[in-house]
Design a protein that fits this description.
Layout lengths: L1 H8 L4 H17 L15 E3 L2 E3 L3 E3 L10 H5 L5 E7 L12 E4 L4 E4 L8 H10 L5 E6 L10 H12 L5 E5 L14 H22 L5 E5 L5 H14 L3 E4 L20 E4 L3 H15 L5 E4 L5 H9 L2 E6 L1 H6 L2 H12 L3 H6 L1
Helix pairs in contact: 5-6, 6-7, 7-8, 9-11
Length: 347
């Protein structure tokens, strides 16, 4: 059934299809029709970052930036959902068109630029949702906030989302906000992590609950940079790391329509880069901090590859667009049947 739905949606402009798809999911959920698409997934709980996930397959940030569709997405069988990226103030993002499919390579290029209605709007949607599962909230900075003031934006968002999130993801790796990836450099990252960790401690006391922090990094890092980031994660006691965001590279899509569009490339072409980062991170972290693997997961074997290289959980986005909800169940079954480091690490 999803292949038919996809054929209709792929005739539309990619961003139009995205918005219409979220709206259609909400309507289908209200009418009780999502069961026709949602796979049956047996419980396979994993405890990671102190949280018990009903299964290890999550939705990556970016699909539901404003938390408009939490309940419908939660009904599809995901073990956890990550919404955002959200910024302190609403912002329109980059000019359209800014989202492009490359179906020949199971890929997408986007330069959305953190388009969202602001953290207060997202939290209003969270309050009205009935979803009781694991909810990650991904936070970022406004495009016009100077990079030396970026920590202020992250702290504003952290304070606001803390009471409502199961965990908070800190996005410093989108290629579509000017200079954002500069925050991955040692000095900037040191200052940001120190500020976030101190605020996390204060908020934990204020609210009487500890909400884990996870850092989301890019796939376009060399070994020295990955080791430096791992050292800082360990130094500051960050609870998790999400590897990876989209790539600025174009390996695997050369010469294809839209391949030269500016923005981040996701989908099958980023799989190897993402998995390589996971493998290096796992070695550098020595099992002390869990990794959430994301990037180029189009089937169960892609997911198992990431867990074998050190990921405790996985997330999908582009694969979900191309394969639909059936991919969730396929990955869950593959991870349940395979012997993977994630299963051992989570226990």
């Amino acid at each position: 059934m999803y292949s038919l739905i996809r054929s209709v949606f792929f005739r539309l402009d990619a961003e139009t299809a995205h918005g219409f798809g979220l709206w259609a999911m909400k309507i289908a959920h209200r009418l009780g029709l999502l069961g026709l698409l949602a796979p049956r997934i047996e419980p396979m709980p994993k405890t990671v970052m102190g949280l018990t996930f009903p299964n290890p397959v999550g939705l990556a940030a970016g699909l539901d930036k404003n938390g408009d569709c939490i309940d419908a997405l939660g009904a599809l069988g995901f073990g956890f959902i990550e919404i955002g990226t959200v910024t302190p103030r609403p912002q329109p993002g980059n000019p359209k068109p800014r989202l492009f499919r490359i179906p020949q390579a199971d890929a997408i290029v986007n330069r959305m630029g953190f388009n969202n209605r602001g953290v207060d709007c997202l939290l209003e949607n969270v309050r009205h949702s009935r979803y009781k599962g694991i909810l990650g909230i991904n936070i970022g900075k406004n495009f016009d906030t100077p990079i030396d003031k970026a920590a202020d934006d992250y702290l504003i968002c952290l304070r606001k989302v803390y009471p409502h999130a199961s965990y908070v993801a800190v996005n410093i790796s989108s290629p579509n906000t000017k200079n954002l990836r500069q925050l991955q450099q040692s000095d900037e990252l040191e200052n940001l992590l120190a500020a976030l960790k101190a605020e996390q401690g204060r908020l934990a006391q204020e609210h009487g609950r500890y909400v884990p922090l996870a850092l989301k990094i890019a796939p376009d890092l060399d070994t020295e940079q990955i080791i430096a980031i791992a050292d800082l994660l360990l130094k500051h006691g960050i609870d998790g790391v999400i590897a990876t965001n989209t790539t600025i590279g174009r390996e695997g899509v050369e010469g294809l329509p839209h391949a030269d569009e500016a923005g981040g490339l996701s989908g099958a072409p980023v799989r190897r880069k993402s998995t390589a980062v996971i493998k290096q991170l796992a070695l550098a972290l020595g099992g002390k901090i869990p990794i959430i693997g994301v990037g180029g997961i189009l089937d169960g074997l892609d997911a198992e590859e990431k867990t074998r290289c050190g990921a405790s959980l996985v997330q999908i986005y582009t694969g979900f667009i191309y394969r639909g909800p059936q991919l969730i169940g396929e990955i869950a079954r593959q991870l349940e049947s395979g012997e993977c480091t994630a299963c051992r690490f989570a226990k």
